[in-house]
Amino acid sequence: MAEGRGPGGNKWLGAVEGYYGPPLKHQERLDLIEWLSRHGYNSYAYGPKDDPYHRDRWRQPYPEDRQAEMEELVAAGSESGVEVALGISPGLDWGTGDESHLVEKLSRFRELGAKVLSVAWDDVPGGGADLGSAHGSAVAHAVEEVGRDLWWFTVPTDYATPAATEYLKAFVDRLPEKVEVAWTGPSVVSPKVTGADAASLAAELGGRPLLFAENFPVNDAAMGGVLHIGPYPERSPDLVEETTGVFCNFMSLPLASRVGLAVAARFWNDPTVDRLEAWMEVLEEFPGLAPLARASFSWVDSPWPDPELSSWADSDDRRLRDYLQAGCREGLDPALEAEIEPWLDQWERESQAMQAALETLTHPHPRPIELSFITAFMWDRARHSREQLFGIRWAYYPVTARAGDKWVAAPEALVMGDNLTDRLCRKALES
């Protein structure tokens, strides 16, 4: 069993701004920090991939105005009990002699008040033991020069693997014991992960416990059409016991991301909680969001619609029709409504198509041809949108597997099928 190694000796419960896409605005971060503090989180990691000073131009110091914002963010976090981790991702062009640049940048973060620092080597070209040793040695040097009295975590290049690679063994061998090692499970996005998975890899790494990096509710890249505001993924309760905690990578939508962060907190604070009940309780915190959330039930391992909505579609009563006619906007917070507008628009397109299908299916025979044409038109309009609702028509998740020293795409990465609208409209037009 892994002990807590985070603030106050507790397990880490963190949110990480680590997606590809526009970084949050400063006020959005401040607001999210305050919300996290009220939901049991003890840490927030700053690491947006598209911040050039974090990754592409990592050697360059942040401009003065950005440093002032970071200092304010760290102070606000400390005040509310949420430690803000500042870090850099130098792996794209790391070279001999870069240790001094690394130390200089991280030392400045310490001067800004950060008590948690990180070095991330993820999503860069891989390698073997030599690369692992170089990356691990760089982190060890930074810890020694910047401060052993701080909290540290690092993301290795091989951060998604079911077994220790030569890179990972050499990487960990160079690290000070106190440095947390992030791991996303057997895959970049792991449909299934257990405590046994974590314990097995930790044993291969000399008994070193792992920090679970949960790629949920993030929805960047080719999974960007799916709004992850459904239930928390199915995770084995012993995952909490066998790791030092979790950092959840969230979406570029800071308000909508709160649903996923809230259901994650429920699990990590009580891994025996019923995930569907916890989700429904969380939705009570977001007035008006339930209709869209129920249409956003899907994730990579559950691409189907909300099961209850599916059961309504298969019955002869009016429950699905009443649900659709009630709409998806009533009571929504205006700021949240603006953030998720593309999915609200798509909800209405899907709703119109399903209502047309239901009208066709319930009309006595012979059915007027106009009903079929209207259903076909509405269905066609709903099918040609990037936003995925009522099940996933198409998305590509970063589900990976190891093949020697390389990552390869796993077959389950491609999620493709009919959603609830497709089922109803096809049934109506074929009837």
Can I get a quick summary?
With 431 residues, the protein is an alpha/beta fold.
3D structure, described in words:
The protein has 431 residues and is of the alpha/beta class. It has 2 domains: 7-283, Glycosidases (TIM Barrel, Alpha-Beta Barrel); 293-430, no CATH class. Helix content is 42%, strand content 13%. It contains 16 helices and 12 strands. The strands form 3 sheets. It has an 8-stranded parallel beta barrel, surrounded by 4 helices. The protein has a two-stranded antiparallel sheet with strand order 9-12. Helix 5 links the parallel strand 5 (151-155) and strand 6. Helix 4 runs parallel beside helix 5 and helix 8 (257-269) packs across helix 9. The longest helix has 22 residues, at 341-362. The protein is elongated. The N and C termini lie far apart (57 Å). The model has no long low-confidence stretch (mean pLDDT 97).
Strand content: 5-15%
**Straight-line distance between termini:** 57 Å
Number of strands: 12
Strand order of the largest sheet: 1-2-3-4-5-6-7-8
Mean residue pLDDT: 97
Low-confidence stretches at least 5 residues in length (pLDDT < 50)?
A: none
**What do we call the CATH homologous superfamily of the largest domain?**
Glycosidases
User: If classified by CATH, what would the architecture of the largest domain be?
Assistant: Alpha-Beta Barrel
**CATH class division of the largest domain:** Alpha Beta
Helix and strand composition category: alpha/beta
The topology string of helices and strands comes to EHEHEHEHEHEHEHEHHHHHHHHEEEEH
